[in-house]
Write a structure and sequence with these properties.
Layout (H helix, E strand, L loop, with lengths): L2 H4 L9 H19 L18 H9 L9 H6 L8 E11 L2 E10 L5 E2 L4 E6 L2 E13 L2 E20 L3 E22 L2 E12 L8 E17 L2 E14 L2 E7 H4 L2 H10 L7 H4 L3 H16 L6 E10 L3 E10 L4 E9 L3 E11 L2
Antiparallel strand pairs: 1-5, 1-15, 2-3, 2-12, 4-6, 5-6, 6-7, 7-8, 8-9, 9-10, 10-13, 11-12, 13-14, 14-15
Length: 354
């Protein structure tokens, strides 16, 4: 990898930096996006629908639900509560930019050393995901949930230094998460605050990667007929990631046959190059180990260790959405995120009593 620095002009068609950079980034980008996928809007408990005395008495006559806690008291005050347990299917598309900094490399058991010469101009990560989410109204104003899903990530990487090029790498992976939504309703209006954590374990990383979402939504609810309801909202969302990422990858996974041949042609004289002379002793040891493995054809014998920091380029974006309660059991939701981070959510829900 570092040999590219020493022989930039002769390696402009080589894919070593492109492939290695993409491997480092994709695993971090997976978790970057995944925490969004558990954040699903949950309107407040039908704040515009005050039950009549006859309706309250009819519901309470057969009401034996364990959840939500204090549910009976809420019904006595006129709130028309949804069924407490929900099963959600979430289909999501997301596109956002990721900032990658502080890359460090090493080989074998050596400690990683900074490689400031690798710079990215942009890293864009379109993601498609499907997950299953279970939620429970623990209290009339508090919904808790967990989710598990799978994501397909296409990472579009543009490198500016030491070479200028663009590449696209595809990867997929599972994820899990937990979260909670607190709501409050006043007449036709409601406010929801959502918080969740997501975890994923990409194959190239030594530790799970975490992501956090905090969302605020303000909406308005209305009755259509019978048990059918509509709700609309606007909101904003903030995303934060666990900054540090580290892992290891075999050199044979970084360099394919074409890149290896070009690098071997460029090896002679790299020790005398100006770029090599400017490296620190530790960086030179990393370069030497990699170039020796390339020269001997023993790529599988060298493991490249790496660390990097990552963060969402634009942590905040805006939201608009709608919720249609077809009946007490079936609900359909759609939400769109815009400004900096683009996301689209489609969310059918089936609810039942407990």
């Amino acid at each position: 990898m570092s040999n590219v620095v020493a022989t930039v002009d002769s390696l402009r068609r080589s894919d070593i930096v492109r492939r290695a950079s993409s491997y480092w980034l994709v695993s971090g980008v997976v978790a970057c996006a995944l925490s969004l996928f558990g954040s699903v809007p949950v309107p407040a408990q039908n704040p515009d629908l005050i039950l009549t005395k006859a309706e309250r008495d009819s519901i309470l006559k057969t009401y034996n639900n364990v959840f939500p806690i204090w549910g009976r008291k809420a019904i006595e005050k006129g709130f028309d509560l949804p069924y407490p347990v929900g099963l959600n299917l979430n289909v999501i598309y997301l596109s956002q930019n990721i900032d990658i900094t502080n890359i460090a490399l090493s080989t074998g058991d050596n400690p990683t050393v900074p490689v400031e010469f690798i710079q990215f101009s942009s890293v864009e990560a379109p993601v498609t995901s499907v997950n299953v989410r279970g939620d429970l109204w623990v209290l009339p104003f508090l919904n808790m949930y967990g989710f598990v899903g799978h994501a397909w990530v296409t990472t579009d990487v543009t490198l500016s230094e030491p070479l200028e090029f663009n590449t696209v790498v595809k990867q997929e992976g599972p994820y899990v998460g937990l979260g909670a939504t607190a709501t409050v309703g006043i007449k036709h209006n409601w406010l929801a605050i959502d918080f969740n954590y997501a975890w994923t374990q990409p194959e190239k990383l030594s530790q799970p990667v975490e992501g956090r979402i905090l969302g605020f939504r303000y909406g308005r609810a209305m009755k259509i007929k019978n048990n059918q309801r509509l709700a609309f909202w606007i909101g904003t969302m903030n995303q934060k990631l666990k900054s540090g990422t580290d892992g290891s990858i075999g050199l044979d996974e970084v360099i394919d046959g074409g890149g290896e041949a070009q690098l071997r042609q460029a090896l002679p004289g790299y020790l005398q190059s100006q770029a090599y002379q400017q490296l620190t002793p530790q960086q030179k040891r990393t370069v030497d180990a990699i170039t020796q493995a390339i020269g001997n054809g023993n790529l599988g014998d060298v493991t490249v260790n790496y660390t990097l920091d990552k963060e969402v380029t634009d942590p905040w974006n805006m939201l608009v959405g709608a919720n249609w309660d077809v009946s007490k059991r079936w609900t359909f939701r759609v939400e769109v995120g815009f400004l900096q981070r683009i996301q689209v959510l489609i969310n059918p829900v089936y609810r039942f009593n407990w």
